[in-house]
Write a structure and sequence with these properties.
108 residues, alpha+beta, four-stranded antiparallel β-sheet, 31% strand, Dimeric_a/b-barrel, NIPSNAP domain-containing protein, NIPSNAP
Length: 108
C-alpha cells in the first residue's frame, strides 16, 4: 500500500470554495475513477489555516498513475474545475508526498 498525502494551499478566503468543490464535485469523480480516500483535514493550528490536507490509498504507483491521469483528463472534471475558479483561482500551490507504511504501522 502507498499513501499519497496532498496539501492544497489556498488563496486567502478561498478555502470554503475548495471545500465546496471537493464535497459537491471532486468526490464524485474520485468515486467514478475508483480513487479511495483515507481522509480530509483542515488546519486547526499551524502556520496557515488556508490549507486542505487529504490522503489517498493506492495499491501501487502504477495504479495511481492510471487512475489519477484518467481523472485529471476527464473533460467534465476539467470544465467543473474551471467553472469553480471562474471568479478567481482557489489553490495557490499543492504539496504532494508518497508515503509507505512502516512494519509497525496500523495502516499497512
Amino acid at each position: 500500500m502507498i499513501v499519497e498525502m496532498r496539501i492544497y494551499h489556498c488563496a486567502p478566503t478561498r478555502l470554503p470554495a475548495l471545500l465546496d468543490r471537493f464535497n459537491n464535485i471532486t468526490l464524485g469523480f474520485f468515486e467514478k475513477y475508483g480513487i479511495h480516500q483515507i481522509g480530509f483535514w483542515t488546519t486547526l493550528a499551524g502556520p496557515s489555516n488556508h490549507a486542505l490536507t487529504y490522503m489517498i490509498k493506492w495499491e501501487s504507483l502504477a495504479e495511481r498513475e492510471q487512475k489519477w491521469n484518467a481523472f485529471q483528463g476527464d473533460k467534465d472534471w476539467i470544465a467543473a474545475r474551471a467553472a469553480s475558479e471562474a471568479e478567481r483561482p482557489i489553490v495557490e500551490r499543492i504539496e504532494n508526498h508518497f508515503l509507505t507504511p512502516t512494519a509497525f504501522s496500523v495502516l499497512r
